[in-house]
Amino acid sequence: MDKALIDQLIQTVRQELIPQLKIESIDPHDPVVFTYLPQPWQKLGAGNYAAVVYHPDYPHWVVKIYAPGRPGFEEEVEVYRLLGSHPAFSECFYAQNGVLILKRLYGVTLYDAIQRGLRIPKQVIEDIDQALDYARKRGLYPHDVHGRNVMMYEGKGLVVDISDFLHEDKCGKWDNLKRGYYWLYRPILAPLRIKIPYFLLNVVRKTYRFFSKLKQAGDGIFAKISRRHHKKKHS
Fold it and tell me: What is the pLDDT of residues 114-136, one digit of tens each?
């Protein structure tokens, strides 16, 4: 780590980026929207709560900024503290007032890879699995791991977004993605190199979210009925 460059970047963020940047989170289930990004900053990505940008003079780091009113900053800082250093994860070098400076991870998300018809090697999936196991051993709970939050670079798997890794509730997104990878992608899509348009991927994403909520609601109702039945049985 070049501390002098990091210090310069911090000053640039404070003096040039934050006073001018305008982002908003219209819907917590959709990516943050940029309304103004000062030059020469470049947009790198947008999650549901935060945006990620970089400066051409500091290509090895990114700046993640939480949208006004959106939670999760303190939790993400704690996750990076617990993670320490691992090749499949980024590292945090600065965190203050909803702004993080992170090591830049290069690559393409699995979501984009499918859209572009790129081959996703099995090693990528295995690397991500091993990285998530590492996180669990560090006392974390891999959560919200899906196609937009994982990447591949030179045949290796990377985990991009770890902001929800303190959530202890069970999350099956990564298991579902792996199931789709082994059952659908490897035997059918990969050999054909089919490009899936973004609008269709978005339909799949929203349909998955709808049925996940439906299942959660159903599980909750079933649990309540089971508890009532148990109480009546023992009353």
Answer: 888 899 999 999 999 999 999 99
